[in-house]
Write a structure and sequence with these properties.
Layout lengths: L9 E4 L5 H12 L3 E6 L2 H11 L5 E5 L5 H15 L4 E4 L14 H28 L5 E5 L12 H6 L2 H13 L5 E7 L5 H14 L3 H10 L9 H11 L11 E4 L9
Helix pairs in contact: 1-9, 3-4, 4-6, 7-8
NADP nicotinamide-adenine-dinucleotide phosphate binds next to helix 1, helix 2 and helix 7.
Protein backbone atom coordinates (compact mmCIF):
# COMPACT_ATOMS: atom_id res chain seq x y z
CA UNK A 1 0.00 0.00 0.00
CA UNK A 2 1.26 3.49 -0.87
CA UNK A 3 1.08 5.92 2.02
CA UNK A 4 0.87 9.69 1.75
CA UNK A 5 3.89 10.16 4.05
CA UNK A 6 2.42 13.47 5.17
CA UNK A 7 2.84 12.98 8.92
CA UNK A 8 4.87 15.92 10.24
CA UNK A 9 5.12 17.52 6.79
CA UNK A 10 4.94 21.32 6.69
CA UNK A 11 2.06 22.61 4.59
CA UNK A 12 0.93 26.12 3.70
CA UNK A 13 -2.66 26.47 2.43
CA UNK A 14 -3.78 29.88 1.20
CA UNK A 15 -7.34 31.27 1.07
CA UNK A 16 -8.29 28.66 3.65
CA UNK A 17 -10.79 30.35 5.98
CA UNK A 18 -13.62 28.53 4.16
CA UNK A 19 -14.51 26.50 1.08
CA UNK A 20 -11.92 24.63 -0.98
CA UNK A 21 -8.90 25.94 0.95
CA UNK A 22 -10.43 25.08 4.31
CA UNK A 23 -11.21 21.56 3.11
CA UNK A 24 -7.63 21.13 1.87
CA UNK A 25 -6.24 22.27 5.25
CA UNK A 26 -8.48 19.79 7.06
CA UNK A 27 -7.41 16.94 4.79
CA UNK A 28 -3.68 17.60 5.37
CA UNK A 29 -4.25 17.89 9.13
CA UNK A 30 -6.08 14.55 9.09
CA UNK A 31 -3.00 13.06 7.40
CA UNK A 32 -0.86 14.31 10.30
CA UNK A 33 0.68 17.33 8.55
CA UNK A 34 1.53 20.59 10.35
CA UNK A 35 -0.41 23.33 8.63
CA UNK A 36 -0.45 27.12 8.26
CA UNK A 37 -3.70 28.53 6.91
CA UNK A 38 -4.05 31.98 5.39
CA UNK A 39 -6.80 34.36 4.36
CA UNK A 40 -7.26 38.12 4.19
CA UNK A 41 -9.88 38.51 6.93
CA UNK A 42 -8.51 38.06 10.46
CA UNK A 43 -11.89 37.21 12.02
CA UNK A 44 -12.71 34.54 9.45
CA UNK A 45 -9.20 33.16 9.78
CA UNK A 46 -9.35 32.96 13.58
CA UNK A 47 -12.66 31.06 13.38
CA UNK A 48 -11.24 28.64 10.83
CA UNK A 49 -8.11 28.04 12.91
CA UNK A 50 -10.25 27.39 15.96
CA UNK A 51 -12.42 24.84 14.19
CA UNK A 52 -9.49 23.15 12.41
CA UNK A 53 -7.50 22.79 15.64
CA UNK A 54 -9.52 19.65 16.48
CA UNK A 55 -7.69 17.90 13.60
CA UNK A 56 -4.09 18.74 14.51
CA UNK A 57 -1.39 21.43 14.62
CA UNK A 58 -2.69 24.44 12.74
CA UNK A 59 -1.41 28.03 12.68
CA UNK A 60 -2.73 31.04 10.83
CA UNK A 61 -1.19 34.02 9.06
CA UNK A 62 -3.42 36.80 7.75
CA UNK A 63 -2.30 38.11 4.35
CA UNK A 64 -4.06 39.69 1.40
CA UNK A 65 -2.81 37.73 -1.62
CA UNK A 66 -3.23 40.83 -3.80
CA UNK A 67 -0.50 42.65 -1.85
CA UNK A 68 3.17 41.81 -2.49
CA UNK A 69 4.37 42.77 1.00
CA UNK A 70 1.68 40.53 2.52
CA UNK A 71 2.95 37.58 0.45
CA UNK A 72 6.52 38.24 1.66
CA UNK A 73 5.25 38.33 5.23
CA UNK A 74 3.16 35.17 4.75
CA UNK A 75 6.16 33.17 3.58
CA UNK A 76 8.49 34.54 6.27
CA UNK A 77 5.98 33.88 9.06
CA UNK A 78 5.15 30.39 7.76
CA UNK A 79 8.83 29.46 7.79
CA UNK A 80 9.08 30.91 11.31
CA UNK A 81 6.12 28.81 12.50
CA UNK A 82 6.88 25.52 10.71
CA UNK A 83 10.64 25.72 10.06
CA UNK A 84 10.15 25.40 6.29
CA UNK A 85 7.57 24.41 3.66
CA UNK A 86 7.22 20.93 2.12
CA UNK A 87 3.91 21.54 0.33
CA UNK A 88 2.21 24.70 -0.88
CA UNK A 89 -1.49 24.47 -1.66
CA UNK A 90 -2.35 27.70 -3.43
CA UNK A 91 -6.03 28.65 -3.46
CA UNK A 92 -7.22 32.23 -3.92
CA UNK A 93 -10.32 34.40 -3.68
CA UNK A 94 -12.89 34.85 -6.44
CA UNK A 95 -13.22 37.75 -8.85
CA UNK A 96 -16.68 39.26 -9.33
CA UNK A 97 -18.85 37.53 -11.93
CA UNK A 98 -19.48 39.52 -15.13
CA UNK A 99 -18.90 39.76 -18.86
CA UNK A 100 -15.85 41.25 -20.62
CA UNK A 101 -17.90 44.29 -21.61
CA UNK A 102 -18.78 45.06 -17.99
CA UNK A 103 -15.15 45.39 -16.86
CA UNK A 104 -13.07 48.53 -16.45
CA UNK A 105 -9.35 49.10 -15.88
CA UNK A 106 -9.72 48.76 -12.11
CA UNK A 107 -11.49 45.40 -12.21
CA UNK A 108 -8.86 43.98 -14.59
CA UNK A 109 -6.08 45.25 -12.36
CA UNK A 110 -7.62 43.72 -9.22
CA UNK A 111 -8.28 40.42 -10.97
CA UNK A 112 -4.72 40.29 -12.31
CA UNK A 113 -3.36 40.83 -8.80
CA UNK A 114 -5.64 38.15 -7.36
CA UNK A 115 -5.38 35.50 -10.08
CA UNK A 116 -2.14 36.11 -12.03
CA UNK A 117 0.41 37.97 -9.92
CA UNK A 118 -0.33 36.29 -6.59
CA UNK A 119 0.31 32.70 -7.76
CA UNK A 120 3.38 33.79 -9.76
CA UNK A 121 4.98 35.69 -6.88
CA UNK A 122 3.97 33.34 -4.07
CA UNK A 123 5.24 30.23 -5.86
CA UNK A 124 8.56 31.98 -6.52
CA UNK A 125 8.94 32.95 -2.84
CA UNK A 126 8.03 29.45 -1.63
CA UNK A 127 10.34 27.81 -4.17
CA UNK A 128 13.22 29.99 -2.94
CA UNK A 129 12.72 28.61 0.57
CA UNK A 130 12.52 25.02 -0.72
CA UNK A 131 15.72 25.44 -2.76
CA UNK A 132 17.63 27.10 0.11
CA UNK A 133 16.63 24.30 2.48
CA UNK A 134 17.16 21.59 -0.14
CA UNK A 135 13.55 20.45 0.20
CA UNK A 136 12.10 18.36 -2.63
CA UNK A 137 8.76 20.12 -2.21
CA UNK A 138 5.43 20.11 -3.97
CA UNK A 139 3.51 23.10 -5.23
CA UNK A 140 -0.16 22.65 -6.11
CA UNK A 141 -2.09 25.51 -7.68
CA UNK A 142 -5.87 25.53 -7.70
CA UNK A 143 -7.42 27.32 -10.69
CA UNK A 144 -10.72 26.52 -12.45
CA UNK A 145 -12.18 24.45 -15.29
CA UNK A 146 -12.80 27.83 -16.93
CA UNK A 147 -9.13 27.99 -17.99
CA UNK A 148 -9.86 25.10 -20.39
CA UNK A 149 -13.38 26.07 -21.43
CA UNK A 150 -14.31 29.69 -20.66
CA UNK A 151 -17.57 30.12 -18.75
CA UNK A 152 -20.07 32.78 -19.80
CA UNK A 153 -20.21 35.57 -17.22
CA UNK A 154 -16.83 34.74 -15.63
CA UNK A 155 -14.67 36.94 -17.87
CA UNK A 156 -12.12 37.94 -15.24
CA UNK A 157 -11.53 34.33 -14.27
CA UNK A 158 -11.49 33.07 -17.89
CA UNK A 159 -8.75 35.54 -18.81
CA UNK A 160 -6.57 35.98 -15.72
CA UNK A 161 -6.46 32.38 -14.51
CA UNK A 162 -5.00 31.07 -17.77
CA UNK A 163 -1.68 32.14 -16.25
CA UNK A 164 -1.85 29.01 -14.09
CA UNK A 165 -1.02 26.93 -17.19
CA UNK A 166 1.98 29.17 -17.81
CA UNK A 167 3.19 28.94 -14.22
CA UNK A 168 2.86 25.15 -14.03
CA UNK A 169 4.59 24.46 -17.34
CA UNK A 170 7.33 27.05 -16.75
CA UNK A 171 8.07 26.38 -13.10
CA UNK A 172 7.87 22.58 -13.32
CA UNK A 173 10.71 22.73 -15.85
CA UNK A 174 12.71 25.37 -13.95
CA UNK A 175 12.48 23.51 -10.63
CA UNK A 176 12.71 19.90 -11.85
CA UNK A 177 16.45 19.68 -11.18
CA UNK A 178 15.78 20.59 -7.53
CA UNK A 179 13.24 17.78 -7.22
CA UNK A 180 10.44 20.30 -6.69
CA UNK A 181 7.18 19.35 -8.40
CA UNK A 182 4.59 21.83 -9.64
CA UNK A 183 1.04 20.83 -10.61
CA UNK A 184 -2.42 22.34 -10.81
CA UNK A 185 -5.99 21.27 -10.17
CA UNK A 186 -9.05 22.60 -11.95
CA UNK A 187 -12.18 22.53 -9.80
CA UNK A 188 -15.37 22.15 -11.80
CA UNK A 189 -18.44 22.83 -9.63
CA UNK A 190 -17.68 22.29 -5.95
CA UNK A 191 -20.24 23.02 -3.24
CA UNK A 192 -19.02 26.17 -1.44
CA UNK A 193 -20.15 29.75 -0.87
CA UNK A 194 -18.74 30.65 -4.30
CA UNK A 195 -21.29 28.43 -6.05
CA UNK A 196 -24.11 30.03 -4.05
CA UNK A 197 -22.82 33.46 -5.17
CA UNK A 198 -22.73 32.39 -8.84
CA UNK A 199 -26.20 30.84 -8.70
CA UNK A 200 -27.64 34.05 -7.22
CA UNK A 201 -25.90 36.16 -9.85
CA UNK A 202 -27.13 34.05 -12.81
CA UNK A 203 -30.63 33.91 -11.33
CA UNK A 204 -30.80 37.73 -11.09
CA UNK A 205 -29.31 38.35 -14.52
CA UNK A 206 -31.64 35.95 -16.30
CA UNK A 207 -34.65 36.35 -14.02
CA UNK A 208 -34.99 32.62 -13.38
CA UNK A 209 -35.37 30.88 -10.01
CA UNK A 210 -32.18 29.85 -8.24
CA UNK A 211 -33.38 26.23 -8.10
CA UNK A 212 -33.59 26.19 -11.90
CA UNK A 213 -30.07 27.64 -12.22
CA UNK A 214 -28.78 24.97 -9.86
CA UNK A 215 -30.48 22.15 -11.73
CA UNK A 216 -29.04 23.43 -15.04
CA UNK A 217 -25.59 23.45 -13.44
CA UNK A 218 -25.99 19.87 -12.31
CA UNK A 219 -27.22 18.82 -15.75
CA UNK A 220 -23.82 19.88 -17.19
CA UNK A 221 -21.99 17.37 -14.97
CA UNK A 222 -21.87 13.83 -16.38
CA UNK A 223 -21.38 12.32 -12.90
CA UNK A 224 -24.70 13.95 -12.05
CA UNK A 225 -23.92 15.92 -8.90
CA UNK A 226 -21.98 18.88 -7.54
CA UNK A 227 -18.64 17.83 -6.08
CA UNK A 228 -17.81 18.16 -2.41
CA UNK A 229 -14.87 19.91 -0.81
CA UNK A 230 -13.76 16.48 0.45
CA UNK A 231 -13.60 15.15 -3.09
CA UNK A 232 -11.55 18.18 -4.11
CA UNK A 233 -9.19 17.62 -1.17
CA UNK A 234 -8.30 14.12 -2.32
CA UNK A 235 -6.70 15.67 -5.40
CA UNK A 236 -4.69 18.06 -3.21
CA UNK A 237 -3.49 15.17 -1.07
CA UNK A 238 -2.44 13.21 -4.16
CA UNK A 239 -0.52 16.07 -5.79
CA UNK A 240 0.73 17.49 -2.48
CA UNK A 241 2.31 14.24 -1.28
CA UNK A 242 4.65 11.51 -2.51
CA UNK A 243 1.63 9.63 -3.90
CA UNK A 244 2.34 11.63 -7.07
CA UNK A 245 6.15 11.36 -6.93
CA UNK A 246 6.64 11.24 -10.74
CA UNK A 247 3.94 13.77 -11.64
CA UNK A 248 5.02 17.34 -12.41
CA UNK A 249 3.72 19.93 -14.87
CA UNK A 250 0.26 18.31 -14.81
CA UNK A 251 -3.10 20.05 -14.78
CA UNK A 252 -5.81 17.84 -13.30
CA UNK A 253 -9.54 18.61 -13.68
CA UNK A 254 -11.66 17.62 -10.67
CA UNK A 255 -15.03 18.16 -12.30
CA UNK A 256 -17.13 15.03 -12.64
CA UNK A 257 -16.23 14.89 -16.40
CA UNK A 258 -17.63 18.36 -17.13
CA UNK A 259 -14.85 19.37 -19.55
CA UNK A 260 -15.57 18.23 -23.09
CA UNK A 261 -12.47 19.36 -24.99
CA UNK A 262 -9.49 17.19 -25.87
CA UNK A 263 -5.98 18.39 -25.06
N1 LIG B 1 -16.31 26.32 -5.76
C1 LIG B 1 -16.16 26.06 -7.05
O1 LIG B 1 -16.92 25.30 -7.67
C2 LIG B 1 -15.02 26.68 -7.82
C3 LIG B 1 -14.83 26.29 -9.16
C4 LIG B 1 -13.78 26.82 -9.88
C5 LIG B 1 -12.93 27.73 -9.27
N2 LIG B 1 -13.15 28.09 -7.97
C6 LIG B 1 -12.22 29.05 -7.39
O2 LIG B 1 -11.54 28.44 -6.31
C7 LIG B 1 -11.22 29.44 -5.32
C8 LIG B 1 -11.79 29.00 -3.98
O3 LIG B 1 -13.17 28.86 -4.17
P1 LIG B 1 -14.19 28.53 -3.00
O4 LIG B 1 -15.36 27.95 -3.66
O5 LIG B 1 -13.50 27.82 -1.90
O6 LIG B 1 -14.55 30.03 -2.53
P2 LIG B 1 -15.02 30.59 -1.11
O7 LIG B 1 -15.75 29.54 -0.34
O8 LIG B 1 -15.70 31.86 -1.43
O9 LIG B 1 -13.63 30.88 -0.34
C9 LIG B 1 -12.76 31.86 -0.81
C10 LIG B 1 -11.59 31.98 0.16
O10 LIG B 1 -10.67 32.95 -0.37
C11 LIG B 1 -10.25 33.80 0.68
N3 LIG B 1 -9.79 35.05 0.08
C12 LIG B 1 -10.53 35.92 -0.66
N4 LIG B 1 -9.77 36.94 -1.07
C13 LIG B 1 -8.53 36.74 -0.56
C14 LIG B 1 -7.31 37.45 -0.61
N5 LIG B 1 -7.21 38.61 -1.31
N6 LIG B 1 -6.24 36.97 0.04
C15 LIG B 1 -6.33 35.81 0.74
N7 LIG B 1 -7.44 35.09 0.82
C16 LIG B 1 -8.54 35.54 0.18
C17 LIG B 1 -11.48 33.91 1.56
O11 LIG B 1 -11.13 34.27 2.88
P3 LIG B 1 -11.26 35.74 3.54
O12 LIG B 1 -12.56 36.31 3.08
O13 LIG B 1 -11.23 35.38 4.99
O14 LIG B 1 -10.06 36.48 3.06
C18 LIG B 1 -11.97 32.46 1.54
O15 LIG B 1 -11.28 31.70 2.51
C19 LIG B 1 -11.80 30.74 -5.84
O16 LIG B 1 -10.79 31.42 -6.55
C20 LIG B 1 -12.89 30.28 -6.80
O17 LIG B 1 -13.19 31.25 -7.79
C21 LIG B 1 -14.16 27.58 -7.23
Amino acid sequence: MVLTGLKGQRVLVTAASQGIGYGAAQAFLEEGARVVINSSNTDNLAKAQQSLSQFGEVHSVAADLTVGADIDNLVTKTVGLLGGIDTLIYVTGSPQPGTMMEQDYGTWESAARLLTISPSYLTKKVAEVMITQNVKGRIVLSASDAIREPEPNLALSNVCRISIFGIVRTLARELGSHGIRVNAVLPGTIKTGRIDQLVQDISKRNNVPEAMVMSRMVSQIPLGYIGSVDEMSKAFIYLGSELSSYVSGAVLPVDGAMLRSIG
